[in-house]
Amino acid sequence: MEKWTNFILKDVTLELRQLTINKNIGDNDFCGEKVRVTFVEFKMESIPERRPFLLSRDFVFAKPLDKSDTQFQGFVYRVKKSSIVLAKFGDEFHSQHHSSSRYNISFSFNRVCLKRAHQAVEAATDPSFHNFLFPECPVRRDSFALPSFYFSNGVHLEQRSAIRQILALKGLSRAGVVVREAVWQVYQRSKDSRILVAAPINKTCDALMRSLKDKIPDSEIFRVNAAFRKIDVVPDDILPSCLYKEESECFACPQLEELQQFKVIFSTFVSSFRLHNEGINAGHFSHIFLIDASSTSEPEAMIVLANLANEDTTVVVTGAQGKRSGWVRSPIAQRNGLQISFFERLKEFTPYKNLDPAFIARLDPKLESDETNSY
């Protein structure tokens, strides 16, 4: 969060833009009747790399150059073309603003994502969740005999082995081809299966969903999006499997009864909270795939598990040994272990650390360096 502390746009001219949007009825959500709203527009020549980055509903502060003791707070409405920011300020700002006014601009984060992580950490303290966090000996369910089946083209021998392990309700594996094939096999073989595929970023979720859309009917697959994800970055072939409300210009989830009917749902770790918020209970999903769990913080991964998994859920975690989240940059957080992912920490427990083939599958076995292997 401190990344923005020293990031200040100095001596900025702010332009006003009139847009027609839906009426703000509270909590910064635009819904209801159409109204004309005045936005402030400015360009950021250089935006900090990677996360954290500006998102809709992050906070903007404008400090007039001629009034050192005055500062106005607004919020980001939209970021266009990755560099042009539209922000919404209140009447107090507009009453003193002139076309010649110049400002220093700074930013702060909307804490909604952190609040979801805090909620997940609190939920994970329930004693019944202990075995997910600190597995003394993972419960091994009886494996069942798998019938012969045909894999899709391009699935290699090691990947087939990992897929068979997933189908036998065992351990960890790799993302990509393995996950796609495993989800497809689970979907095919059990009419009662309910699958959640979660990943840290939208790009991964979109890619996995697109790889399965030609196999799973639209009526049985759904993509959860953050409410104010920009619609123009969502792939066109995925949009039919999303719920976008034109009147409120935001993504939503259907009512609980309809949501429960989907057999396969895709979401980022953070946005999975929306399923919990809509009333999906822990245990609803028969299988939860945490994809690339080595590249995100453990509290973020817990947003999925703490709210949606129980002792009856088959949880498959994928990641790369030695890979750590680049999002945790605070020295204080790093010293206290937050850079260590759920995947990396889990792998230190028996039987994962012993590479027990009943619980963990290693891809790329010919590679000598363990640091490059995926599980």
What does the secondary structure layout of this molecule look like, with pairings?
Elements (H helix, E strand, L loop, with lengths): L8 E5 L1 E12 L2 E15 L15 E6 L7 E9 L3 E5 L2 H6 L5 E7 L3 H12 L6 H4 L23 H11 L9 H13 L5 E5 L2 H11 L8 E3 L19 E3 L4 E3 L3 H4 L4 E5 L4 H6 L8 E4 L7 H11 L5 E4 L13 H5 L6 H5 L29
Parallel strand pairs: 8-12, 8-13, 9-12, 13-14
Antiparallel strand pairs: 1-7, 2-3, 3-6, 4-5, 4-7, 5-6, 10-11
Helix pairs in contact: 2-9, 4-5
Protein name: Helicase MOV-10-like beta-barrel domain-containing protein
Organism: Eucalyptus grandis
GO molecular function: miRNA binding
Order of helices and strands: EEEEEEHEHHHHEHEEEHEHEHEHH
| Low-pLDDT segments | 24-32, 141-151, 169-174, 365-371
Mean pLDDT: 80
Number of helices: 11
Indicate the CATH topology of the largest domain. Answer: Rossmann fold
**In the CATH classification, which architecture of the largest domain applies?**
3-Layer(aba) Sandwich
As for the number of domains, it is: 2
Helix content: 10-25%
Give the overall silhouette: globular
Largest β sheet strand count, sense and barrel closure: 7 strands, antiparallel
Protein name: Helicase MOV-10-like beta-barrel domain-containing protein
Organism: Eucalyptus grandis (Flooded gum)
GO molecular function: miRNA binding
Pfam families: MOV-10_beta-barrel
